[in-house]
Amino acid sequence: MANVLTRFADIMSANINSVLSKAEAKNADKLLEKYIADARRDLEQLKSETAAVIAEEMAQGRKLADCEANISKYTQYAEAAVRAGNDDDARKFLTYKQQESAKLADLQASYAAAKENSEKMRLMSKKLTEEINAAGSKMAELKAKMSMAQSQEKMQQLNQRIGGAGSSLNNMDGLFDAVQKRIDKIDAQAQLNQDLDPEAERRELERKYAAGGGATGGNSVDDELAKLKAMMNQ
């Protein structure tokens, strides 16, 4: 029994926070996973050991109860023999009582020790179970934080890419502005040349009337409205 208690004594002082305090951020999840796996394996062994200790407590309890019951029984039998006038029988029953009474102190001590050991093992099992549950909660919390951190890293990378693309777009905008300025300059030069050309007005009039563009009323709004009313029988 002493070996059992010694083997699991460190469970009583174990603390998930102390385990995590020794972990670096980069390996905290792996450390927690190992802690939980080891703790679950220890818990299964501890349950088996605890069951054996509880069984021993129950056995010692039965022995003590039997002894106490025998002492009470032989006392009653001795009293009955005395009332019946059978002193020899009473002496025998009192002898049996003394034999049981001689064992009583040892049985009481054995039961007390078994009960103490059982309580210690129950406490360790409960504590280890609580530690495993706490570790599971810490693991879920850690995974959530790691997921959030990874999302933030991805967002930062995306922002950097967008920022780089934005810089490229800004450069393209500058290039477009430069090209547009050249086009505007060419158009201005052409307009200036046209304004200075004495034949420009004549050629413009010829283009205007060459295709009947000078006729009026060809595509007026009134004509379109008349056509629409005719189609609608209005």
Give a quick rundown of the structure.
The chain has helices spanning 2-7, 9-13, 16-21, 28-83, 87-196, 200-210, 221-231. By secondary structure, it is mainly alpha-helical.
Task: Give a written overview of the molecule.
This protein is mainly α. The protein folds into 2 domains: 149 residues, Helix Hairpins (Orthogonal Bundle), CATH 1.10.287; 37 residues. α4 packs antiparallel against α5.
> What would you say the CATH architecture of the largest domain is?
Orthogonal Bundle
What low-confidence regions span 5 or more consecutive residues with pLDDT below 50?
Answer: none
Radius of gyration (CA) equals 52 Å
Shape descriptor reads rod-shaped
H and E string: HHHHHHH
What's the count of strands? Answer: 0
Largest sheet: none
Strand content: under 5%
Name the average pLDDT: 77
The tally of helices reads 7
Distance between the termini: 112 Å
Can you tell me the CATH topology of the largest domain? Helix Hairpins
List keywords for this structure.
rod-shaped; Helix Hairpins; single chain; mainly alpha; 7 helices; 234 residues
